[in-house]
Amino acid sequence: MQKYLLAFCLLFTCPAFGQLTSGLTGKKDTSYTNYSAYQSTSKQHPNIKLVREFKLPMVQEKRNLVYCTIGERKLVLDAFYPKKKSKQKTPAILIIHGGGWRSGNRTQHYPLAQRLAALGYACFTVEYRLSTEALYPAAVHDLKAALRWLRTNAKAFNLDTAKFAALGFSAGGELAAFIGTTNKNPKYEGRNCYLNISSQVQAIVDIDGTLSFVHPESGEGNDTRSISAATYWFGYPKKENYVLWEEASPLQHVSKNTPPTLFLNSAVDRMHAGRDDYRKILAQHNIYSEAHTFPNAPHAFCLFDPWFEPTVNYIANFLAKVF
């Protein structure tokens, strides 16, 4: 019944009703992977190369670490950090995968985590509940719980708890920005795991993630051909619950508490909807930001050569500057 109501509301304005759960299949959506991105992207960019995992002797790895348990559900992350322990504490980066809040996997960014760890950062690729399992704001709650776990376990990884960055690609970029713009806002902490610990981040890296679901530049919520990723995540078409779509937009929360932000973008304009308005607000509060666009680059540029190494360099240079 719910899927018919949702289809009706994609065409007509509906009275408010409960959040639709037809997208909660309980099954993993494996449609978005690095290889599937490569297959689609290489049609227009035949010279790209998919970046594979590295074997770096200076990087220590620990995988499948449980950071929060919700009922019987264990949420995990992976750690990539400098093998040689320094007297100086290590900045931490939480790396959030994309996939439309519905697909994708934390393993997609192992190469990025490995390269940044080799440059002296402790990187953590994180799993979070997708829209096949839980609707917004569950993913936000999970990621903030992961940050609290990192602070709780800071000694084990020699982390500098005053130098945490949230980094994400695509949907993960939106989530990284949302986490950072809701610093110090208890509404988005959730109710699970280490609630007396701070989830604050001191830097944001948004790689081609939208800043607003309702901005005129945004392409999110177009359900004319099929149900969009954002509609599945929220459980409402945009016009059925505009307020929720607006609330979930990082642009709605930018303030004096927002940390410095780096934007790395493809040539696909709609993927950085709201970016310029976001930066204007940061500038009003004298908060540093950078934006770099790769000409002619596809949306998934950070997964491929020739854009992977420039991406790493931009991130490392930005974090060195703000940390």
Automatic annotation (TrEMBL):
Organism: Adhaeribacter rhizoryzae
Protein name: Alpha/beta hydrolase
Annotated keywords: Hydrolase, Signal
Keyword Iron-sulfur: no
GO molecular function: hydrolase activity
A family per Pfam: BD-FAE
Organism phylogeny: Bacteria, Pseudomonadati, Bacteroidota, Cytophagia, Cytophagales
Position of the signal peptide: 1-18
Ranges of residues in domain BD-FAE-like: 77-270
